[in-house]
Amino acid sequence: MMQLNPFYYGGIIEDEYFCNRVEELKDIKLDILAGLNTLIYAPRRFGKTSLVLKALKELEKKDEVKYVFFDLMYLSTVEEFINKYFNALAKTLEEPTDKIIKFFKSILKIRPNINVSFDVTGSSSFSLALGGEDVDKTLEEVLNIPLAFAQNGIKIVIVFDEFQEITNLDLESKLRSIIQLHSNKLAYIFMGSKKSLLHQMFLDKNRPFYKSVKHFKIKEINANSWYEFIESKFLNTGKKIDHAVVDKILTITKGFPYYTQQFAYEIWNITQDKADESLFEKALKTILSREEDLFSVEFDNLTSNQKKALKIVIEKNGQNVYDEQYLAKYKIKSGSLQISLKNLTERDILDKTSSGYYLQDPLFEYWLKQMSQC
Ligand SMILES: Nc1ncnc2c1ncn2[C@@H]1O[C@H](COP(=O)(O)OP(=O)(O)OP(=O)(O)O)[C@@H](O)[C@H]1O
Ligand SMILES: [Mg+2]
Predict the structure, then answer these.
(1) Which of 125, 130, 157, 229 lies 20 to 30 Å from 50 when distance is taken between CA atoms?
(2) Which region among 46-60, 112-126, 186-200, 334-348 has the lowest average model confidence (pLDDT)?
(3) What's the rounded Cα separation, in Å, for the pair 91 and 69?
(4) Coil, strand or helix: which one is 105?
(5) Phi, psi of 9 (to 5 degrees)
(6) Is the CB of 194 under 6 A from ligand 1?
(7) Which of 235, 269, 297 is the last residue of a domain?
């Protein structure tokens, strides 16, 4: 029988593909059960959605929660928000179509027609006929629907994934004014990958969601967990991987989940019996050539000062970036460097910790380093 690759990278993962996150799962579950509203953020492809869904599914299995998962990516109008959210609510009910419609009719004061369509697999999708209805009123009613889900002490949790997108819909104040009346009844999890936008939404005094949530930043998965995860998966599929190869993977990926799985996946694919450093080099080439186009577009889109700023961050390892020698080397004034660093942080290319700046995407960093050595 052909062995399947034990690694996976791309979308949401579960079960055997899931590495560590033990502490995070515990904390998220406690917050959910305490009914806190939380903001969970991390860069793209960091495992936010997988983590939150795993926590919710585990609680759901024990009948402790019922959850609504709603992804705001790709929504462009308020009507679309209403309908897609309405559909997500209907799906959460897990009841036959006629029962769902009856339930909605019993709780909605507005009387729009509820449309149901079926795809080829027979699965249904719900929407509201939003003709002459007052959009604001309908939105309010739809946002209040989950209040009617509450039953027998089961917590109702609403997840808004890619929540920063709400700003494009001009719904921030409206949404906040309605859901603040849900405290103690529903728990909200706001998730997203644009840290700077989310910070503005939740930390700026003049914004509706100011200080309304507990912040939860997801970190990289630690090296020990990755060694165990990667080495055991090789062994369980009749192959081996040198410890030094896992070292090399982690030096580049720094434990970033998506890339670590991508390296493991590609190396496993080309390994007959044992993965050594030459196979690592081969996989690295494959991965870089695949990501290269995206990276060069991203780099080309920067201003020349931003490019200089990135190079300085890389060369100085994010520390003492205003070093006179480097300002002279790259012919940039400290004021311009400051502006560029701020712009790069706002664009979520850079982030800052107490020890300095770093690039959010470790493979982009590696690629840039290679480029500047050419
Ligand atoms: N706990 C984990 N263990 C192992 N791999 C993980 C883990 N979490 C995420 N990954 C890897 O990262 C990929 C992306 O995960 P996921 O879609 O949950 O991240 P995300 O942060 O929601 O991404 P996006 O920004 O695209 O929405 C997965 O396909 C998997 O390869
Ligand atoms: Mg996601």
Answers:
(1) 125
(2) 112-126
(3) 9
(4) helix
(5) -140, 145
(6) no
(7) 297
- Kindly state the DSSP code that residue 85 receives in the 8-state scheme: H
> Is residue 96 in contact with ligand 1, taking CB distance under 6 Å?
no
Protein residue with least CA distance to atom 13, ligand 1: 258
- Residue 69 is assigned to a structural domain of this protein: yes
Statement: the pTM of the whole predicted model exceeds 0.85 = yes
Q: How many CB atoms lie within 10 A of CB 283?
A: 24
- Pocket lining: 46 vs ligand 1, CB cutoff 6 Å: yes
Q: How far is CA 157 from CA 3, 167, 373, in A?
A: 39, 22, 50
The verdict on residue 9 lying in a domain is no
> Do 242 and 362 belong together in one domain?
no
What are 317's two structure tokens?
């390892």
Residue 306 has which token pair? 């931003």
- Which of 217, 249, 280 is the last residue in one of the domains? 217
Residues 148, 244, single domain; the answer is no
Is residue 201, in this structure, part of any structural domain at all? yes
- Residue 124: what pLDDT? 83
Q: What is the pLDDT of residues 271-306, one digit of tens each?
A: 999 999 999 999 999 999 999 999 999 999 999 999
Task: Identify whether the C-beta of residue 79 lies closer than 8 Å to the C-beta of residue 130.
Answer: yes
Q: Which amino acid is at 125?
A: S
* CA–CA separation, 65 and 240 (whole Å): 41
Tokens (6 digits) for 119: 């795809």
Q: How far apart are CA 95 and CA 36, in angstroms?
A: 28
Identify residue 345 by its one-letter amino acid code: T
Taking the centre of ligand 1 as the mean of its atom positions, its distance from the CA of residue 12, in whole angstroms, is 6
Largest pairwise CA distance in the chain: 72
pLDDT interval class at 196 (50, 70, 90): confident
Domain around 192 = 21-217
